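seq as requested:
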Amino acid sequence: MASEKDLPRQSEREKSDETLRDSDSASEHQADFDRDAERVEADRAKLQSRSDSDASRDLGRADVARSGAKRQAEGDERLRLERQTSDQAIKGERLRTDAATEKGRSHHQASARSSAELLSQEQKSHQRTRATLTTREEFLAIVSHDLRNPLNNISMAAQNLLEDPGDVKEMAASINRSAGEMLGLIQDLLDVERMALGKLTLHIEPHDVSEIIKEAVEKFKGTAASKGITLEAAPQAVCGYVVCDRSRVMQVLSNLIGNAIKFTPAKGQICVSCQRAGPEGGEVRISVSDTGEGIAPEKIKTIFERFSQIHNQDRRGIGLGLYIAKMMVEEHPGRIWVESKLGEGSTFHFTLPLRSADPRSQQ
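C-alpha coordinates:
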Protein backbone atom coordinates (compact mmCIF):
# COMPACT_ATOMS: atom_id res chain seq x y z
CA MET A 1 0.00 0.00 0.00
CA ALA A 2 1.07 3.37 -0.68
CA SER A 3 1.81 5.68 2.06
CA GLU A 4 -0.35 8.66 2.72
CA LYS A 5 2.49 10.86 1.50
CA ASP A 6 2.35 9.16 -1.81
CA LEU A 7 -1.40 9.65 -2.33
CA PRO A 8 -1.32 13.31 -3.17
CA ARG A 9 1.54 12.71 -5.49
CA GLN A 10 -0.30 9.93 -7.18
CA SER A 11 -3.39 12.05 -7.37
CA GLU A 12 -1.41 14.88 -8.87
CA ARG A 13 0.23 12.44 -11.16
CA GLU A 14 -3.10 11.11 -12.22
CA LYS A 15 -4.39 14.61 -12.64
CA SER A 16 -1.28 15.41 -14.54
CA ASP A 17 -1.71 12.34 -16.67
CA GLU A 18 -5.34 13.16 -17.18
CA THR A 19 -4.45 16.69 -18.03
CA LEU A 20 -1.82 15.39 -20.31
CA ARG A 21 -4.25 13.03 -21.84
CA ASP A 22 -6.80 15.77 -22.25
CA SER A 23 -4.13 17.92 -23.73
CA ASP A 24 -3.05 15.19 -26.05
CA SER A 25 -6.66 14.52 -26.92
CA ALA A 26 -7.24 18.19 -27.62
CA SER A 27 -4.08 18.30 -29.65
CA GLU A 28 -5.13 15.28 -31.57
CA HIS A 29 -8.56 16.71 -31.98
CA GLN A 30 -7.08 19.99 -33.17
CA ALA A 31 -4.76 18.11 -35.41
CA ASP A 32 -7.68 16.17 -36.81
CA PHE A 33 -9.60 19.39 -37.25
CA ASP A 34 -6.65 20.98 -38.94
CA ARG A 35 -6.18 17.99 -41.16
CA ASP A 36 -9.85 18.00 -42.00
CA ALA A 37 -9.68 21.70 -42.67
CA GLU A 38 -6.57 21.21 -44.82
CA ARG A 39 -8.25 18.33 -46.59
CA VAL A 40 -11.36 20.39 -47.18
CA GLU A 41 -9.22 23.29 -48.39
CA ALA A 42 -7.20 20.95 -50.55
CA ASP A 43 -10.37 19.42 -51.95
CA ARG A 44 -11.78 22.86 -52.45
CA ALA A 45 -8.56 23.93 -54.15
CA LYS A 46 -8.60 20.81 -56.27
CA LEU A 47 -12.23 21.40 -57.18
CA GLN A 48 -11.48 25.00 -57.98
CA SER A 49 -8.46 23.96 -59.98
CA ARG A 50 -10.47 21.35 -61.74
CA SER A 51 -13.26 23.85 -62.36
CA ASP A 52 -10.74 26.37 -63.63
CA SER A 53 -9.15 23.69 -65.74
CA ASP A 54 -12.52 22.63 -67.15
CA ALA A 55 -13.47 26.26 -67.76
CA SER A 56 -10.09 26.85 -69.37
CA ARG A 57 -10.49 23.71 -71.40
CA ASP A 58 -14.03 24.68 -72.43
CA LEU A 59 -12.79 28.16 -73.24
CA GLY A 60 -9.95 26.68 -75.21
CA ARG A 61 -12.33 24.39 -76.98
CA ALA A 62 -14.62 27.34 -77.71
CA ASP A 63 -11.64 29.35 -78.93
CA VAL A 64 -10.51 26.43 -81.02
CA ALA A 65 -14.03 26.02 -82.37
CA ARG A 66 -14.29 29.72 -83.07
CA SER A 67 -10.85 29.74 -84.62
CA GLY A 68 -11.69 26.71 -86.72
CA ALA A 69 -14.97 28.25 -87.86
CA LYS A 70 -13.17 31.49 -88.59
CA ARG A 71 -10.47 29.68 -90.49
CA GLN A 72 -13.16 27.72 -92.31
CA ALA A 73 -15.01 30.93 -93.12
CA GLU A 74 -11.79 32.60 -94.20
CA GLY A 75 -10.92 29.56 -96.28
CA ASP A 76 -14.39 29.58 -97.84
CA GLU A 77 -14.10 33.30 -98.56
CA ARG A 78 -10.68 32.82 -100.13
CA LEU A 79 -12.03 29.94 -102.18
CA ARG A 80 -15.02 32.04 -103.27
CA LEU A 81 -12.74 34.93 -104.26
CA GLU A 82 -10.43 32.56 -106.10
CA ARG A 83 -13.36 31.00 -107.91
CA GLN A 84 -14.77 34.42 -108.72
CA THR A 85 -11.40 35.59 -110.02
CA SER A 86 -11.01 32.35 -111.97
CA ASP A 87 -14.53 32.64 -113.38
CA GLN A 88 -13.90 36.24 -114.39
CA ALA A 89 -10.63 35.28 -116.00
CA ILE A 90 -12.32 32.39 -117.85
CA LYS A 91 -15.19 34.66 -118.87
CA GLY A 92 -12.78 37.35 -120.06
CA GLU A 93 -10.76 34.79 -121.98
CA ARG A 94 -13.92 33.37 -123.47
CA LEU A 95 -15.08 36.83 -124.50
CA ARG A 96 -11.70 37.59 -126.05
CA THR A 97 -11.74 34.26 -127.84
CA ASP A 98 -15.30 34.82 -129.05
CA ALA A 99 -14.41 38.36 -130.15
CA ALA A 100 -11.34 37.09 -131.97
CA THR A 101 -13.39 34.31 -133.55
CA GLU A 102 -16.15 36.73 -134.57
CA LYS A 103 -13.58 39.19 -135.90
CA GLY A 104 -11.96 36.42 -137.87
CA ARG A 105 -15.35 35.26 -139.15
CA SER A 106 -16.35 38.81 -140.06
CA HIS A 107 -13.02 39.36 -141.79
CA HIS A 108 -13.42 36.09 -143.64
CA GLN A 109 -16.99 36.95 -144.61
CA ALA A 110 -15.96 40.46 -145.65
CA SER A 111 -13.11 39.01 -147.64
CA ALA A 112 -15.45 36.48 -149.20
CA ARG A 113 -17.97 39.22 -150.03
CA SER A 114 -15.24 41.41 -151.39
CA SER A 115 -13.95 38.55 -153.50
CA ALA A 116 -17.48 37.76 -154.66
CA GLU A 117 -18.10 41.42 -155.49
CA LEU A 118 -14.81 41.69 -157.34
CA LEU A 119 -15.62 38.52 -159.24
CA SER A 120 -19.12 39.81 -159.99
CA GLN A 121 -17.72 43.16 -161.11
CA GLU A 122 -15.15 41.44 -163.29
CA GLN A 123 -17.84 39.21 -164.78
CA LYS A 124 -20.10 42.21 -165.42
CA SER A 125 -17.20 44.16 -166.87
CA HIS A 126 -16.34 41.21 -169.07
CA GLN A 127 -19.97 40.90 -170.13
CA ARG A 128 -20.15 44.63 -170.83
CA THR A 129 -16.95 44.44 -172.83
CA ARG A 130 -18.28 41.51 -174.84
CA ALA A 131 -21.63 43.24 -175.25
CA THR A 132 -19.89 46.44 -176.31
CA LEU A 133 -17.78 44.60 -178.86
CA THR A 134 -20.80 42.68 -180.12
CA THR A 135 -22.92 45.82 -180.18
CA ARG A 136 -20.19 47.72 -182.01
CA GLU A 137 -19.94 44.99 -184.62
CA GLU A 138 -23.70 44.88 -185.00
CA PHE A 139 -23.84 48.66 -185.06
CA LEU A 140 -21.30 48.87 -187.86
CA ALA A 141 -23.14 46.19 -189.80
CA ILE A 142 -26.52 47.89 -189.30
CA VAL A 143 -25.27 51.37 -190.10
CA SER A 144 -23.43 50.21 -193.20
CA HIS A 145 -26.57 48.36 -194.32
CA ASP A 146 -28.92 51.28 -193.66
CA LEU A 147 -26.62 53.81 -195.25
CA ARG A 148 -25.97 51.58 -198.23
CA ASN A 149 -29.65 51.16 -199.09
CA PRO A 150 -30.60 54.85 -199.46
CA LEU A 151 -27.24 55.58 -201.01
CA ASN A 152 -27.87 52.85 -203.62
CA ASN A 153 -31.32 54.33 -204.27
CA ILE A 154 -29.82 57.77 -204.78
CA SER A 155 -27.15 56.35 -207.10
CA MET A 156 -29.71 54.39 -209.15
CA ALA A 157 -32.08 57.37 -209.40
CA ALA A 158 -29.22 59.63 -210.49
CA GLN A 159 -28.15 57.05 -213.07
CA ASN A 160 -31.71 56.82 -214.41
CA LEU A 161 -31.87 60.61 -214.70
CA LEU A 162 -28.69 60.57 -216.75
CA GLU A 163 -29.95 57.80 -219.02
CA ASP A 164 -33.64 58.77 -219.28
CA PRO A 165 -34.62 62.09 -217.73
CA GLY A 166 -38.24 61.59 -218.72
CA ASP A 167 -39.82 60.99 -215.29
CA VAL A 168 -37.79 63.58 -213.41
CA LYS A 169 -40.41 64.17 -210.71
CA GLU A 170 -40.62 60.53 -209.55
CA MET A 171 -36.83 60.10 -209.56
CA ALA A 172 -36.35 63.35 -207.66
CA ALA A 173 -38.86 62.19 -205.05
CA SER A 174 -36.96 58.91 -204.65
CA ILE A 175 -33.68 60.76 -204.23
CA ASN A 176 -35.31 63.07 -201.70
CA ARG A 177 -36.70 60.16 -199.65
CA SER A 178 -33.38 58.34 -199.64
CA ALA A 179 -31.48 61.47 -198.70
CA GLY A 180 -33.99 62.05 -195.88
CA GLU A 181 -33.42 58.53 -194.56
CA MET A 182 -29.67 59.07 -194.53
CA LEU A 183 -30.00 62.43 -192.82
CA GLY A 184 -32.33 60.91 -190.21
CA LEU A 185 -29.84 58.13 -189.52
CA ILE A 186 -26.98 60.59 -189.15
CA GLN A 187 -29.12 62.82 -186.90
CA ASP A 188 -29.91 59.85 -184.66
CA LEU A 189 -26.22 59.02 -184.33
CA LEU A 190 -25.40 62.64 -183.48
CA ASP A 191 -28.20 62.76 -180.89
CA VAL A 192 -26.89 59.62 -179.19
CA GLU A 193 -23.43 61.14 -179.02
CA ARG A 194 -24.79 64.42 -177.58
CA MET A 195 -26.75 62.55 -174.91
CA ALA A 196 -23.71 60.46 -174.01
CA LEU A 197 -21.69 63.65 -173.51
CA GLY A 198 -24.52 65.46 -171.68
CA LYS A 199 -24.68 68.12 -174.39
CA LEU A 200 -28.27 67.64 -175.50
CA THR A 201 -30.06 71.01 -175.35
CA LEU A 202 -33.85 71.37 -175.17
CA HIS A 203 -35.74 74.54 -176.12
CA ILE A 204 -38.68 74.39 -173.70
CA GLU A 205 -41.84 76.35 -174.54
CA PRO A 206 -45.61 75.81 -174.12
CA HIS A 207 -47.19 74.09 -177.15
CA ASP A 208 -50.65 72.80 -177.95
CA VAL A 209 -50.32 69.03 -177.75
CA SER A 210 -53.27 68.51 -180.15
CA GLU A 211 -51.52 70.49 -182.88
CA ILE A 212 -48.30 68.48 -182.41
CA ILE A 213 -50.22 65.20 -182.72
CA LYS A 214 -52.10 66.34 -185.85
CA GLU A 215 -48.88 67.51 -187.49
CA ALA A 216 -47.07 64.23 -186.74
CA VAL A 217 -49.97 62.15 -188.08
CA GLU A 218 -50.22 64.28 -191.23
CA LYS A 219 -46.51 63.76 -191.84
CA PHE A 220 -46.98 59.95 -192.05
CA LYS A 221 -50.38 59.80 -193.73
CA GLY A 222 -48.92 59.10 -197.18
CA THR A 223 -46.51 56.41 -195.94
CA ALA A 224 -49.28 54.62 -194.03
CA ALA A 225 -51.68 54.80 -196.96
CA SER A 226 -49.06 53.32 -199.30
CA LYS A 227 -49.04 50.22 -197.07
CA GLY A 228 -52.81 50.06 -196.77
CA ILE A 229 -52.76 51.15 -193.12
CA THR A 230 -55.27 53.50 -191.54
CA LEU A 231 -53.56 56.24 -189.51
CA GLU A 232 -55.64 58.67 -187.50
CA ALA A 233 -55.31 61.20 -184.71
CA ALA A 234 -57.71 61.32 -181.78
CA PRO A 235 -56.50 64.22 -179.64
CA GLN A 236 -58.72 65.69 -176.96
CA ALA A 237 -59.19 69.39 -176.39
CA VAL A 238 -58.81 68.84 -172.64
CA CYS A 239 -55.16 67.91 -173.13
CA GLY A 240 -54.22 71.59 -173.33
CA TYR A 241 -50.69 72.91 -173.59
CA VAL A 242 -47.58 70.89 -172.78
CA VAL A 243 -44.24 72.36 -171.76
CA CYS A 244 -41.77 70.84 -174.19
CA ASP A 245 -39.25 71.15 -176.99
CA ARG A 246 -41.60 70.87 -179.98
CA SER A 247 -39.02 69.49 -182.41
CA ARG A 248 -37.94 66.80 -179.93
CA VAL A 249 -41.54 65.75 -179.21
CA MET A 250 -42.08 65.55 -182.98
CA GLN A 251 -38.98 63.38 -183.16
CA VAL A 252 -40.38 61.04 -180.45
CA LEU A 253 -43.76 60.81 -182.23
CA SER A 254 -42.03 60.23 -185.57
CA ASN A 255 -40.07 57.33 -184.13
CA LEU A 256 -43.17 55.77 -182.54
CA ILE A 257 -45.44 56.25 -185.59
CA GLY A 258 -42.68 55.08 -187.95
CA ASN A 259 -42.20 51.90 -185.90
CA ALA A 260 -45.96 51.32 -185.81
CA ILE A 261 -46.15 51.55 -189.61
CA LYS A 262 -43.11 49.30 -189.95
CA PHE A 263 -44.63 46.46 -187.90
CA THR A 264 -48.32 46.80 -188.81
CA PRO A 265 -49.58 44.72 -191.74
CA ALA A 266 -51.85 45.97 -194.52
CA LYS A 267 -55.41 46.81 -193.44
CA GLY A 268 -54.08 47.48 -189.95
CA GLN A 269 -54.88 50.56 -187.89
CA ILE A 270 -52.76 53.09 -186.01
CA CYS A 271 -54.19 55.71 -183.67
CA VAL A 272 -52.41 58.59 -181.89
CA SER A 273 -54.31 59.97 -178.89
CA CYS A 274 -53.81 61.89 -175.66
CA GLN A 275 -55.47 62.35 -172.28
CA ARG A 276 -54.92 63.95 -168.89
CA ALA A 277 -52.90 61.83 -166.46
CA GLY A 278 -50.68 61.99 -163.39
CA PRO A 279 -51.40 63.37 -159.91
CA GLU A 280 -54.29 65.84 -160.12
CA GLY A 281 -54.12 65.70 -163.92
CA GLY A 282 -50.80 67.51 -163.96
CA GLU A 283 -49.46 65.85 -167.10
CA VAL A 284 -50.54 64.63 -170.53
CA ARG A 285 -50.20 61.04 -171.67
CA ILE A 286 -49.72 60.61 -175.41
CA SER A 287 -50.33 57.14 -176.84
CA VAL A 288 -49.53 55.48 -180.19
CA SER A 289 -51.54 52.28 -180.69
CA ASP A 290 -51.28 49.78 -183.53
CA THR A 291 -52.76 46.43 -184.57
CA GLY A 292 -49.39 44.96 -185.51
CA GLU A 293 -47.67 41.74 -184.56
CA GLY A 294 -47.00 42.76 -180.96
CA ILE A 295 -43.81 42.40 -178.91
CA ALA A 296 -42.60 39.33 -177.02
CA PRO A 297 -42.48 39.83 -173.22
CA GLU A 298 -38.73 39.21 -173.05
CA LYS A 299 -38.15 41.92 -175.67
CA ILE A 300 -40.21 44.52 -173.80
CA LYS A 301 -37.56 44.63 -171.05
CA THR A 302 -34.82 45.67 -173.48
CA ILE A 303 -36.71 47.45 -176.24
CA PHE A 304 -35.63 50.93 -175.07
CA GLU A 305 -31.93 50.02 -174.98
CA ARG A 306 -29.44 51.16 -177.59
CA PHE A 307 -29.34 49.09 -180.78
CA SER A 308 -32.19 46.91 -179.55
CA GLN A 309 -34.15 45.11 -182.26
CA ILE A 310 -37.48 43.33 -182.00
CA HIS A 311 -36.09 40.58 -184.21
CA ASN A 312 -32.42 39.62 -184.02
CA GLN A 313 -32.04 39.63 -187.81
CA ASP A 314 -34.23 42.71 -188.29
CA ARG A 315 -32.54 45.35 -190.45
CA ARG A 316 -35.42 47.85 -190.63
CA GLY A 317 -33.50 50.39 -188.55
CA ILE A 318 -30.41 50.59 -186.35
CA GLY A 319 -32.27 50.20 -183.04
CA LEU A 320 -31.75 53.78 -181.86
CA GLY A 321 -35.23 55.21 -182.33
CA LEU A 322 -36.79 54.01 -179.07
CA TYR A 323 -33.61 54.66 -177.12
CA ILE A 324 -33.54 58.26 -178.35
CA ALA A 325 -37.28 58.62 -177.67
CA LYS A 326 -36.76 57.45 -174.10
CA MET A 327 -33.89 59.89 -173.52
CA MET A 328 -35.86 62.79 -175.04
CA VAL A 329 -38.95 62.10 -172.94
CA GLU A 330 -37.00 61.72 -169.70
CA GLU A 331 -35.21 65.03 -170.35
CA HIS A 332 -38.52 66.96 -170.25
CA PRO A 333 -39.05 65.22 -167.68
CA GLY A 334 -41.52 62.47 -168.49
CA ARG A 335 -41.95 58.71 -168.68
CA ILE A 336 -42.22 56.27 -171.59
CA TRP A 337 -43.37 52.64 -171.60
CA VAL A 338 -45.09 50.05 -173.78
CA GLU A 339 -48.02 47.66 -173.43
CA SER A 340 -48.16 44.80 -175.91
CA LYS A 341 -49.59 41.36 -176.66
CA LEU A 342 -48.29 39.07 -179.36
CA GLY A 343 -50.69 38.93 -182.30
CA GLU A 344 -52.80 41.83 -180.99
CA GLY A 345 -50.60 44.87 -181.31
CA SER A 346 -48.78 47.40 -179.14
CA THR A 347 -49.40 50.74 -177.47
CA PHE A 348 -46.53 53.09 -176.64
CA HIS A 349 -47.23 55.74 -174.00
CA PHE A 350 -45.22 58.78 -172.93
CA THR A 351 -45.99 61.70 -170.64
CA LEU A 352 -45.18 65.42 -170.73
CA PRO A 353 -45.72 68.20 -168.15
CA LEU A 354 -49.00 70.02 -168.67
CA ARG A 355 -49.78 73.72 -168.74
CA SER A 356 -53.55 74.07 -168.68
CA ALA A 357 -53.99 77.36 -170.59
CA ASP A 358 -52.49 78.96 -173.70
CA PRO A 359 -49.79 81.27 -172.30
CA ARG A 360 -50.20 83.58 -175.29
CA SER A 361 -53.73 84.44 -174.14
CA GLN A 362 -52.31 85.64 -170.80
CA GLN A 363 -49.89 88.15 -172.31
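DSSP finds six helices and seven strands in the chain.
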